[in-house]
Each structure stands twice: as C-alpha cells, then as structure tokens.
C-alpha cells in the first residue's frame, strides 16, 4: 500500500517535472515555431543564477522564483533581439544559431562562474509515508507544475495580452494589419518562454546541483515532450507530459533507469507514427 | 547546376583536385598530415550523406549519427569476428541502408511533417545512444566483440587488402583508398543527381504535391533517397572506426548529428563541394583552437556558429558564387571577352 | 591476428621514420618537451583543468630547480575538448610533430584507449593518471591511479565493521561501475555480508527518486556508491532530501577522486560519508605540505582543488623527472627500465612504487570521513598492491602486450 502511494507520487513528480521542463519551450515553439536548441543552457543559466545568488546571501525562494526567471527572461529578450529576430520562418537556421548559442553559453558560464560550484541543499525536508520517506520538495514540484499551467492558461484566455498573442499565433499578417506589433509580441513571447525555463532551472538547482554542461541531459526530454504534445501549448504539454512521465517512471520502477529512458523514447516514436502532428494535432484540437 | 554534368567545370575541378591529392598526398605529406587529412576525407564522406538527402531530396535528418554509428559498430563487430575487413566494410553500408529504408518507410508512409521527422530521427539516434551506453556488462557481446558500453570497443582492425586478411594497409594506403572512395562517391552522387531519378528528387524537394500529382510515387522515392543517405553515413562510420581503430558511443551522439547539419549549412545546402570545404575548415579550426589557451573553446566555436548563420545564411559556397556572379555583372562587358 | 597487427605496426613504424626524418633536423634541442592532454572544455573539464594545472605546476617546479639535465622543461599541452577524435589527433601530433619525450594525460577510459595505442605505435612514453577499472597491460604506459581492488578491498571490510552486513550498491552504468561492483560483491561476500541489490545508472541520470524508494524498501545497512560525474551528485542531494541522511550511511570508492565532489555538496549533504582513494589533501607528510603550499602560491586564487587525479598527475611528472635524472637521458627504454626497478618514491600521497609486472602503482590507500567538505583521514593502508591488474597482466613475461584486459570475477 505504502509502496503504491510512493510509486504514484513518483509518477506525478515525473509528470510535473516534464511539464515544468517543457513549458518554456512549448511557449516558444507553440507561438513562434522557433526551435530553441539552447533550451538546456537556459535551464542551466537559471540554475546558476539561483545557486550563485543564494550563495551570495539571497533567500533561496527569492532566487528561484524571482531572480532566476527574471534574469533568464531578460537574457532571452536580448537573444531574441540580437539573433532570433533575424531568423523567423527559418526553422533550421534558428536551430543552428541556438545550437551555437548553447556552446557559447556553456563556455561563457564556465569562464564566469567556473565548473565547480557548491550546490544548495534541497529545502522542505522529507515526508514519511509508512516505511518510506520522500522529499517534501517533490510535492512542491507537483504544485508548481499545476500552478504554472493554470497561470499560462489564464494569461492566454483572459488577458488582452493573451488575446493578442493568440491572434498573432493564428494569423500574424492579419494581426499586424489590425495594428498589433507582431515583432514585439514575439519578443515578449520569447522572453516569457525564457523566464519559465529560468524558473525550471531554479527549481532544478536544489535537486541536482549545477554544472555548465548539464543542459544536454534535459534538452532531448523537453523536445520530445513538446513535439509529441503538438501545437497546443497547454493541452499538448500536459497530455504528453502525463503520457511520457507515466510510461518512463512506471518502467523505471519495474526495471531500472535505463529502460525507463528507452521506454520514453520508444513511446514518443510510436506516438508520432500514429499521430504525426502530435497528440493535440488530433485530440484536444481546439484547446490552448 | 542541373545542366549537363560533363559541361560543368566545377565537377571536373573537384575530381582533378581529388585525384591529385590521392596521388601526390602520400609523397608530399608527413605521417601526421596524412592522418589528419584522412580524417577530413572520412568526415567528408559522412557530410555528403546529409548534403545529398537534404540538398537534393529535401529530407532533413537530425539523425545521420544513427546511421554513422550503426555503420561504425557494424564494421567493428563484424571485422573483429571475421578477422578480415572487406565484407564488414560492405556490411557497414548495407545494414544502415536497410535500417534507413525501414525507418524511412515508417516516417514517409506515416506522412510525418518536416519538424516532426527531424525529431523522430533525433529520437532514434538517442535510443541507439542510450542502449549502446548500456552495454558495459560482460553479457553484451556479439561473438568475440564486447560492446563495452560507454568505453566503446578498442582494437578495431585496420583495413586489409580484399582477400588477404594479413595485408594491412599502412596510413598512406588507407588515405588513398578513402580518397578514392570519396572521389567515386562524388562522381556517383553527381551522376545520380543529374539522372532522371535525381530530377524527380529535386522536383519533390521543390513541391511534393505537384510531384505526386504528376504521378510520381513520392513516398517510395523519398524512402530510396533516405536509404542511400543512410548507407553512405554508415560507410563513413565504418571508415571512421577503422581509421580510429576504436569506436565508442559518441558516434551516436547528438553532436555528431548536429555536426553534419552545421557542415552542410556552412558549406551551402544544395552543393556537394561546399560541405566538404566546410568540414576541412571547421575541423581545422577546432584543432587549432585546442592548441591555444585563450578562451574557453566552446565559447569561441559557439560564437562562430552564430555569426555564420546570421551573416552567411546561404552557406559558404553559394555566397561565394553569388559574389563572383555579382562581380562579373559589374565588370564592363568588353572586359569579359 | 596478433602477428598481422604487429607487421602492420612495423610497417607504419618504418613509414614514420622515413617520413619523419627531415623534420627531426628542425626540432629544437635546447629544451626537453613533455606533452599534456587534458580536457579543458566540454563535459569533463572539471577533472581536466585541475590535472592540467598540476602538470604545469610540476613543470614550473622542475624549472625553478634548474630544469632537467641542465635543460629547461617545456610543456606542450592541448585541449581535446572532451572529444575522442581530437584526442587521437593531438596524440598523433605530440608523438610525430612535437616529438615530445613523454605524454601525461587522458581522463576517461575511452580517451585512454584512444591514445594509448597511438603512443605505443609511435614509441612515445605515456603516463595515465586517473583512477580507473584496471587491466591495462602495456609496457609503454605507466598507470599511476588506483584501481578498484586497491580501494574496495580496504573500504568494504572497514565499513562493514562499522555499520553492518547488508549492502546495497548504486553504480554508474559503464565499465568502471560494473567491474567495481563485482569487486564490492566479492569483498562483501568474503567478509560474510549480504549483497541486497546492485543498481546501475546511466551517466546522465539526474533523478534518483525511484531508486531511493527501492532502497528504503530494501533497508540495507550500507549504501555503497560507485556513482561518478556531476549528474550523479544529484543522488546524494536527493538522498538527503528524502531524510535518509543519518538513517543509512553511504560508503564510496568513486567519490572524491577528482577532489571536487566534496566541495559541490553542502556539509549537511556530505557529512558522514566514508570514502577511500589514493590521496586526500589532508594526508600528513612533508612532501604533501610543500606540494599544497607550493601550488597555492603558484596559482593564488586560481589554485586547483586537489584530489587523487591532480596529485597523481604531479606525481607522474616528478617520478618521470627523477628517472630522467637517474639515467641521465630522456630515452624511453632507459626510463622504463629505471622505473621498473620498483624504487619507492616519496610523494605527497605517501610512498609510491611501480609494480614492474603491471606498470601500475603499489601505493598507500586512505579511508576518510567527509566532515564539513573536508576529508578527515581515519585509516591508512601502506603499500597496497594493484591485485586486480596483477591477475591478468604480467609484463615481465609478456613485454609486448598492448591491450586492456577484461578483469572478470
């Protein structure tokens, strides 16, 4: 019984993690059809900001929830203005440029912060469930994932900024004709996506620690979640995260981490064969 | 470019350069240079696999490393078991080509769109990478060859003369064989591109629907192109394994796939010579960077890539060609004669 | 196959001499050149940078003392960027173009197995300085780091005496992890203990929740960690976050070899771990005191964090230099024969001698407890033999051996 609860919690944790990880990428890809290959490095930057500011005396929660998203968001805007802006509609070029960016960031962070950085202990202690104990931080991740999805949904659904964003996503030319500065919308979107990724990095830091090359461990998972999710930002991320998280954690419990990872990849392959436009290309099409 | 092949000066120039290097190289260079240039030759074969399917078939693969790695491991396992290298070398082409055909069938008959296809090829590469990394235990052996997981397979045999397992090629001979392969591959690909089959490929690249409406079987056609590319990448993998006498899971890495994309991009999509030049220039650059201790090398390489994409979006060779054409146009007509 | 390989080697060696002959004339003769190959960028630069710094410091120290044989020592170092093809290129370059007398370097086993055959083929003396899974048998290479049998044989009985008999292994999923896990199993069983479970993790695993739950269910007395790399540090962090710190103790013979891991964990996460390697900065002897002080003054704020891999790098340069002074030349075979005499050298890590049969080291092994990011030495074992490699390798009997043997238990 206890074990079942643990397994379910771990699966929820895995789903939440995939959702948090992929959300920023989903915003950028869903809105702009730009593949940000430096996604993992944005995450890494968020982690570094969190840990460096915490080591400098800033309270951990402020580092995670304010400083990491803010800094990475601003950095994202800078990148959008300098690089991405010139590459709209050129998926492959944007992919290559951001791949270059990822290398640049790995090297830059190594030079600025170094590659041997003391981490932060995971806060929130542990919770006992029968004979087992799980980190309280896991529950936080689940809550944050839910809140994040709700916030993005509310933003898109109920605010005028969200309306403009959705209009731009559906038909940029029409939006432009109606007086929307699409270029600003794109800039804001990229900034927002980066900020969410920065938050994900901040949340990750107390769990795993940071290293300049850590991004590569996460980039594939995020991409696969976003792509199998399909065009809808929220429904896609949620459905793909749920499906892939359940499969990979379930298999990890049954056999071990190697096959868990492989199962995630295989599931994504099969899914794309059956639903070539991703889950929301066929199901939940009208959702956000 | 689509004009008659034998009237294309660039085609003959490339072949002439290739043959000249093939003959003169081992006489002029020292051993270090030979090894160096052999590497460029192997990677050139690899990059052609992508340049062909992307530039002349409109198929974008993020997973050329899957075939490259498959070829490298196929060659290594087969040659360790058989004690000779000729058949394994053929296998390094054949097996990845078959696998490419199967994967191509899966993708093209499933009507996957561009980006999604990119991701599928990437995922397949990652699966290979994960699984091959998992083979460290002694239970993962194929015949005499231990797969070795992360550490890879050491002591991969050097290429031998066909039919004579005892006659190993020395580095100079190996360079000549590989250079010959590259020259032949270049001729074959250029011929293929200029053939009816190649024209249909170009037609599909330009407009898939129109090609289908004209009665061509687009899906079958794309599967064939993709399988050819896979076979070439696999052959390059086999060359890589025997050149290094060593193979490890890095042949399946995202970086390996991305490099093919970068070289093709930097050299120019829709050319074959451009990517080869890009291989030489960029590999040489990365080698020279490692000798200096100025800044972090990732930082410099990443910066160069971004600048390339922003400033030379068409790739090196086409940009150069355009510049020459523009220069010619500006020259008074009288001077041109 | 062995025969044909040898004839290939001869053929290529002959080619080398003919082709390389002209450039020998240009080579500078006034300095002694040594090569260094460590990753200074890329995924494992956190190991490569301290090793490179230790090498440069050792060279500076030699030159400050008047050089070698009255000549200045010059380090030719390259950054292979954690990329195997650059490793093989730079190795070839060091051997054929720079014509260095000796090369120090390589970090992962994959990088070593890429460059070792190259140095063997071109007869360039080679020192490999990392702890690794054992089994390399090549008279051209000296392997100075610890092997699993050296550390595990000491650590397993020690922690079983402290904590109990049920052991649960978590290990990195590659050769080092697998072979080490086999040794842990053997020593646990020899000491009357019980191995509950062995779990392997890919090197890029960062989430350990499911495994920690499994360990909680299995209730072992000891968790024995053979995890490596920065991604795996997440295990210790999540272990502490699950409230397991203080419940089940952790022992490790892979933690702390680079010297950087203990600084990357916070004291609350690391305290109480018991680890074993061939060197800790807290080793108490005169050589270590002057090594630590010297490298600190040399680099100031950029001084590397010291661990086995960086100390052994320093050690290897010093050992080679002493052999050069003894024989009065940098000639390869002379150095090999000198080192094969098995003399004991006083190094920061204690007394170190080369085992002539394996070219590995007979050295002191230390067990330490992690306290506030410092390794506090609890026990020292003198002159521990590389017994694993000794099972498969005997260079006195087979001096032409040129491979890494698989050590199966």
From TrEMBL, chain A:
The keyword Transmembrane appears for this protein: yes
Principal localisation: membrane
Localization terms from the record: Cell membrane
Example GO molecular function: transmembrane transporter activity
Keywords noted in UniProt: Amino-acid transport, Cell membrane, Membrane, Transmembrane, Transmembrane helix, Transport
Family per similarity comment: Belongs to the binding-protein-dependent transport system permease family. LivHM subfamily.
UniProt cross-references to InterPro entries, sorted A to Z: ABC_transp_permease, BCAA_transport_permease
Chain segments annotated as transmembrane: 12-38, 58-79, 91-114, 134-156, 184-205, 258-276
CDD domains assigned to the protein according to its UniProt record, in alphabetical order: TM_PBP1_LivH_like
GO-annotated biological processes: amino acid transport
Entry membrane topology: Multi-pass membrane protein
Protein name per the record: Branched-chain amino acid ABC transporter permease
Keyword Membrane among record annotations: yes
A Pfam family: BPD_transp_2
PANTHER family recorded: ABC TRANSPORTER PERMEASE PROTEIN (PTHR11795:SF447), BRANCHED-CHAIN AMINO ACID TRANSPORT SYSTEM PERMEASE PROTEIN LIVH (PTHR11795)
GO CC, any one term: plasma membrane
TrEMBL record, chain B:
Pfam families with a match to the protein in the record: BPD_transp_2 (PF02653)
Keyword vocabulary terms for this entry: Cell membrane, Membrane, Transmembrane, Transmembrane helix
One MF term in the entry's GO annotations: branched-chain amino acid transmembrane transporter activity
Membrane topology recorded in Swiss-Prot or TrEMBL: Multi-pass membrane protein
Stretches that traverse the bilayer: 12-29, 41-67, 87-108, 115-132, 174-193, 223-241, 261-282, 294-312
Main location: membrane
Cell location: Cell membrane
InterPro entries: ABC_transp_permease, LivM-like
Cellular-component GO terms for this entry: plasma membrane
Name of the featured protein: Urea ABC transporter
Organism: Pseudooceanicola albus
Taxonomy of the source species: Bacteria, Pseudomonadati, Pseudomonadota, Alphaproteobacteria, Rhodobacterales
Automatic annotation (TrEMBL), chain C:
Taxonomy, superkingdom: Bacteria
A Pfam family this chain is assigned to: Peripla_BP_5
PROSITE patterns named among the record's database cross-references: TAT
Protein name: Transporter substrate-binding protein
Organism whose genome encodes this protein: Pseudooceanicola albus
């Amino acid at each position: 019984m206890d074990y079942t609860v643990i397994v379910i919690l771990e699966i929820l944790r895995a789903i939440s993690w995939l959702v948090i990880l992929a959300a920023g990428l989903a915003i950028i890809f869903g809105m702009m059809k730009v593949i940000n290959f430096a996604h993992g490095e944005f995450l890494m930057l968020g982690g570094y900001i969190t840990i460096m500011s915490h080591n400098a005396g800033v309270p951990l929660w402020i580092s995670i929830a304010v400083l990491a998203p803010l800094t990475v968001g601003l950095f994202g805007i800078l990148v959008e203005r300098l690089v991405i802006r010139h590459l709209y509609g050129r998926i492959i070029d944007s992919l290559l440029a951001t791949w270059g960016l990822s290398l640049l960031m790995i090297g830059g962070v190594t030079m600025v912060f170094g590659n041997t950085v003391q981490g932060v202990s995971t806060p929130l202690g542990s919770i006992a469930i029968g004979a087992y104990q799980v980190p309280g931080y896991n529950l936080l991740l689940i809550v944050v994932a839910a809140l994040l999805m709700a916030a993005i949904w509310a933003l898109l659904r109920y605010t005028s900024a969200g309306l403009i964003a959705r209009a731009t996503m559906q038909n940029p030319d029409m939006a432009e004709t109606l007086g929307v500065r699409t270029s600003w919308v794109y800039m804001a979107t990229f900034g927002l996506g980066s900020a969410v990724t920065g938050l994900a990095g901040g949340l990750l830091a107390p769990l795993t620690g940071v290293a300049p090359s850590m991004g590569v461990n996460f980039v594939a998972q995020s991409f696969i979640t976003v792509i199998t999710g399909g065009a809808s930002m929220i429904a896609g991320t949620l459905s793909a995260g749920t499906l892939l998280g359940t499969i990979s954690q379930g298999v990890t419990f049954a056999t071990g981490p190697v096959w868990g990872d492989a199962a995630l990849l295989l599931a994504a392959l099969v899914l794309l064969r059956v639903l070539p436009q991703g889950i929301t290309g066929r199901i939940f099409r009208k959702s956000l | 470019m689509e004009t008659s092949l034998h009237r294309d000066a660039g085609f003959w120039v490339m072949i002439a350069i290739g043959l000249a290097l093939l003959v003169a190289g081992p006489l002029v260079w020292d051993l270090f240079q030979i090894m160096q240039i052999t590497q460029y030759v192997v990677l050139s074969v690899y990059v052609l696999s992508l340049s062909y399917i992307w530039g002349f078939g409109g198929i974008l693969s993020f997973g050329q490393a899957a075939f490259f790695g498959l070829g490298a491991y196929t060659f290594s396992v087969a040659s360790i078991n058989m004690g000779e290298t000729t058949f394994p070398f053929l296998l390094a082409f054949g097996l990845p080509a078959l696998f490419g055909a199967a994967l191509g069938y899966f993708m093209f008959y499933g009507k996957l769109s561009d980006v999604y296809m990119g991701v599928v090829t990437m995922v397949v590469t990652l699966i290979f990478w994960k699984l091959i990394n998992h083979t460290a235990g002694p239970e993962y052996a194929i015949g005499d060859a231990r797969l070795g997981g992360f550490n890879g397979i050491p002591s991969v045999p050097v290429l031998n003369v066909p039919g004579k397992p005892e006659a190993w090629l020395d580095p100079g001979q190996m360079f000549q064989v590989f250079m010959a392969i590259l020259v032949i591959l270049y001729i074959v690909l250029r011929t293929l591109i200029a053939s009816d089959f190649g024209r249909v490929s170009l037609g599909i690249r330009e407009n898939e629907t129109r090609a289908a409406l004209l009665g061509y079987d687009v899906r079958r056609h794309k599967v064939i192109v993709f399988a050819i590319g896979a076979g070439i990448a696999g052959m390059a993998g086999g060359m890589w394994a025997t050149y290094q006498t060593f193979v490890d899971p890095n042949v399946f890495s995202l970086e390996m796939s991305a490099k093919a994309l970068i070289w093709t991009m930097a050299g120019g999509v829709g050319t074959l010579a451009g990517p080869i030049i890009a291989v030489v220039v960029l590999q040489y650059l990365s080698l020279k960077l490692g000798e200096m201790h100025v800044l972090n090398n990732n930082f410099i390489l990443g910066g160069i890539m971004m600048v390339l994409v922003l400033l030379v979006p068409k790739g090196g060779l086409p940009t150069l060609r355009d510049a020459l054409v523009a220069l010619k146009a500006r020259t008074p007509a009288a001077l041109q004669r | 196959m062995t025969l044909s390989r040898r004839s290939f080697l001869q053929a290529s060696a002959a080619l080398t001499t003919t082709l390389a002959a002209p450039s020998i004339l240009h080579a500078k003769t006034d300095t002694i050149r040594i090569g260094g190959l460590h990753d200074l960028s890329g995924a494992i630069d956190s190991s490569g940078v301290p090793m490179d710094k230790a090498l440069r410091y050792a060279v500076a120290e030699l030159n400050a003392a008047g050089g070698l044989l009255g000549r200045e020592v010059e380090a030719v170092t390259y950054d292979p960027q954690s990329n195997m093809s650059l490793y093989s290129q730079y190795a070839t370059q060091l051997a054929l173009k720079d014509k260095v007398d000796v090369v120090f370097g390589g970090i992962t086993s994959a990088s070593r197995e890429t460059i070792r055959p190259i140095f063997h083929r071109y007869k360039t003396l080679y020192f490999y300085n990392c702890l690794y899974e054992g089994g390399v048998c090549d008279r051209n290479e000296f392997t100075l780091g610890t092997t699993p049998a050296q550390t595990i044989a000491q650590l397993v009985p020690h922690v079983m005496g402290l904590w109990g008999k049920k052991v649960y292994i978590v290990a990195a999923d590659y050769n080092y992890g697998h072979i080490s896990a086999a040794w842990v199993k053997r020593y646990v069983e020899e000491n009357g203990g019980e191995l509950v479970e062995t779990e392997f993790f890919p090197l890029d695993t960062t989430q350990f929740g499911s495994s920690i739950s499994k360990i909680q269910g299995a209730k072992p007395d000891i968790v024995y960690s053979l995890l490596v790399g920065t991604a795996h540090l997440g295990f210790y962090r999540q272990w502490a976050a699950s409230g397991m710190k203080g419940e089940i103790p952790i022992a490790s013979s892979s933690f702390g070899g680079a010297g950087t891991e203990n600084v990357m964990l916070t004291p609350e996460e690391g305290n109480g771990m018991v680890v074993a390697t061939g060197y800790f900065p807290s080793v108490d002897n005169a050589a270590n005191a002057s090594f630590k002080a010297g490298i600190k003054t040399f680099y100031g704020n950029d001084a590397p964090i010291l661990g086995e891999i960086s100390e052994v790098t320093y050690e290897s340069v010093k050992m080679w230099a002493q052999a050069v002074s003894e024989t009065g030349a940098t000639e390869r075979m002379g150095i090999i024969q000198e080192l094969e005499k098995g003399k004991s050298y006083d190094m920061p890590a204690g007394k170190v001698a080369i085992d002539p049969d394996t070219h590995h080291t007979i050295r002191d092994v230390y067990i330490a407890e992690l306290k506030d990011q410092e390794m506090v030495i609890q026990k020292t074992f003198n002159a521990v033999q590389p017994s694993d490699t000794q099972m498969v390798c005997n260079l006195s009997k087979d001096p032409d051996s040129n491979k890494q043997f698989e050590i199966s238990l």
